[in-house]
Amino acid sequence: MAPSAQAQTSKDKVFVMYAASLIKTFENIIGPAFQNETGYVYEGEARGSVQVANMIIDGFRTPDIFVSAGTVPIKRLMNNTTPFADWLVKFGSAEMVIAYSPTSRFFNDLEKARIGETLWYQVLAKQDFKFGRTDPELDPKGYYMIIAAELANLYYNNSGIKQRTLGDDRNAKQIFPEEILKTILEQGQLDAVAAYKHEAVARGLPYITLPPQINLVDPAFTDFYRNGSYTLGKDGQTVFGEPIYFSFTIPTTLKNLDGAISFGDFLLSTNGRNILEDQGLNPIKPIAEGELESIPSSIRGVVDEENPATLLSQEYNHNLTRK
Amino acid sequence: MDIAKQQGFSILILILSAITVAYIVFPLVSIVTFVEPVKIFESLTRPELWNAFVLSLVSATISTSLLALFGIPLAYFLARYRGFRGKFVIRVIVILPLVLPPLASGALLLGVFGPNSPLTQYFPGVEFTQSVLGVILAQIYVASPFMILASQAAFESVDESYEKISRSLGKHRLETFFRISIPLAKTGIIIGVIMSWVRSAGELGATMMMAYNPHTISIQIFEDNAIGGLRQAVSGIILVVLLAILVIAVFYILSNKGSRIITLGKPSNGNR
Questions:
Q1: For chain B: N or C, fewer Cβ within 10 A?
Q2: A5 → closest Cβ in B115, B124, B229
Q3: What is the pLDDT of residues A237-271, one digit of tens each?
Q4: Alpha-carbon distance B227 to A24, whole Å?
């Protein structure tokens, strides 16, 4: 990808759009560390990963790097009629948990669930329990929670769990913007929220660990995870349950190629991986997917495993009229 | 009977006013519970907080100046040119930015100024979005109704005969505008200026779309909340409250009440 003529004016700036759950990690630690190490000016914007993909496709944003929760948002860019990305690198794995706060009215019950004395879904199903989560149309965590609940129905052999804990997929009583979700939890408006483990750690919130069969962290259960799914409204794309891999790409909208490559290198470096692990995101051996020849050589050199054939996988049933 | 009615009226006014003030102040008072004495100093001295604060002040000033340049003439036109047929449509257009949710305004502005729009093809070197220019463009759009409507009301309350007298004394319309119309409409225009400035400084929704970076103070507070909840956002909120105090002080000075502040509240005996 040749740098555009505008690369000269923004040569020192690297614009990173990333999954909102990483906001504290990126703004407070990764950004400054990257800036110190490379001299590039870090500029970050956190949003739900699906929303980032939508903004790129709609022409509203032109980031140099897109860090996504799960691979689906980047694959949406790759599969677009005009592709906005050609490859992705998976670099960390995330785990779904139920986070809560000392202000929760059901704090004692949630504590019991945390240490295994009660089942988490029995607490969530209690009368007047206020559970919060993000919009599956904007944020991968939104659809991962729905999928986890579907898997719970199977795992516990109890088909009522999802309905009793979540209600409708886009239950208006539970859905909140990602940026305020943890704040209103802390304010006592909600009793518990769906979260990634690294978010709960970053925010200092206690959390309930879910069984590995349903928390989407363990590649050993990849096949079982596929039993859960959610269909996105925008283009009818169906997301199937999968281990949650945080991944990144350099979209075609980039302005600063050298800076983008530098950031990708940083994420995959020892320093970057240590930071991520400290913050609760498990680093994995980097796995690349897509048009492997398009991956900048310094990034591709660190990649451990390559899967070229994912673009046309049968997972995606698109409407023919999609953009 | 009369005195009782007067007192009754005063009491009613006081009660309603007290409720209004309490409603505004109470949430701010509750901020105190989020202030951790040790951490608040650290939080208040963060460079990014002050950078955001200064950016908001500077951009609001630039936006308001541009709004004055273009908005006051429009206000004069709406107040004076009565024969014009399309006024209803123009009035609807003028209040649209006030009625539209700021996020929607921001999205629409992105359509005009965004990376893929025709405008940016003509000006390839200019960064219309994700830049200070983007902040200003967003602020101008959302604050415009305040400038235009306040100035329009101010001009409408100016007796046209003063302008006509000035013209009959041989002064050009431009001189009349600057030496008669504007001074007579001064208070209303100042209110328009201050409200536009405050609206610009406090703007969030449209700025989030047009220019998430560099951070204005509103976006910094938004991000602080996203990262660390209210505990982290408190320092930005405190700065903005101080800003409100500053704004009222400036308003007093601009409306020539400055002398009262200097004499520490004793009303002047001059001819006002």
A1: N
A2: B124
A3: 899 999 999 999 999 999 999 999 999 999 999 99
A4: 5
Name every chain B residue with its beta carbon within 8 A of the beta carbon of A44.
213
**Would the CB atoms of B227 and A23 count as touching at under 8 Å?**
yes
| Cβ atoms of A234 and A75 closer than 8 Å | no
Residues of A in contact with B116 (CB under 8 A): 59
Residues A23, A134, single domain; the answer is: no
Closest residue in A to B222 (Cα) is A179
Instruction: Give chain B's residues under pLDDT 70.
Output: 1, 256-272
A45 and A102 part of one domain: no
Tokens representing A286?
Answer: 């980097």
Residues B44, B14 share a domain = no
- Whether ipTM tops 0.90, in short, is no
Total structural domains in chain B? Answer: 2
Q: For chain A, how many structural domains are there in total?
A: 2
Range of the domain at A275: 5-94+242-307
Task: Provide the pLDDT for residue A307.
Answer: 78
Choose the closest CB to B223 out of A9, A27, A60: A27
For B216, the domain range is: 36-262
**Cβ <8 Å between B223 and A24:** no
| Domain assignment present for B4 | yes
Nearest-CB residue to B114 (from A24, A28, A60): A60
pLDDT at A152 over 90: yes
CB B227 within 8 A of CB A23: yes
